[in-house]
C-alpha cells in the first residue's frame, strides 16, 4: 500500500511538472492556485488538529500566533495609504486597497527582523558572559 501511494505521488508530481513546462500560462496559474490552496488547507488542518490534541503543550504557540496576528492587525491600521503616487498604482495595476496590506506585511517583516537581531545580540552576550 505504501509503494502504491509513492507511485501515485510520483505520477502526480510528473503530471504537474509537465503542466508547468508545457501548458499555457492560464493552466499554470490554475495549477499554482490549486497547489497553494491545498497547502493552506493542509497547514490549517494540521495546525488545528495539533492544537486540539495537544492543547496543554501548545499554549506558547497559541500566544505567539495571537501576538503575531495582533501585530499584523496593528500594522494594517497604522500603515499609510497615500504614500504612493497614483501613477504607481496605475502602472502596477494595483488597487489602492492593497496599500495597507502591503504596508502591514512590510512592517511585520521589519519588526520580526528587528526582534531577531535583538534576540541574536541578547543570546550572544549571554553566551559570552556564561
Question: How would you classify the helix and strand content by structural class?
Answer: mainly alpha
Total count of domains: 2
The topology string of helices and strands comes to: HHHHH
Please state the average pLDDT score: 85
Spatial separation of the terminal alpha carbons: 53 Å
How many beta-strand elements?
A: 0
The outline comes out as extended
Count of helices? 5
Roughly what percent helix? Answer: over 70%
Q: What does the radius of gyration come to?
A: 22 Å
Low-confidence stretches: none
Percent of residues in β-strands: under 5%
Biggest sheet, in brief?
A: none
General description of the model:
The chain is mainly alpha-helical and 130 residues long. It has two domains: 1-53; 55-130. The protein has helices at 2-22, 25-53, 59-78, 86-92, 98-129. The longest helix has 32 residues, at 98-129. The radius of gyration is 22 Å and the shape is extended.
Helix/strand layout:
Blueprint: H1 2-22, H2 25-53, H3 59-78, H4 86-92, H5 98-129
Structure in a nutshell:
With 130 residues, this protein is mainly α. Helices cover 84% and strands 0% of the residues. It has two domains: 1-53; 55-130.
What are the defining features of this structure?
84% helix, 5 helices, 130 residues
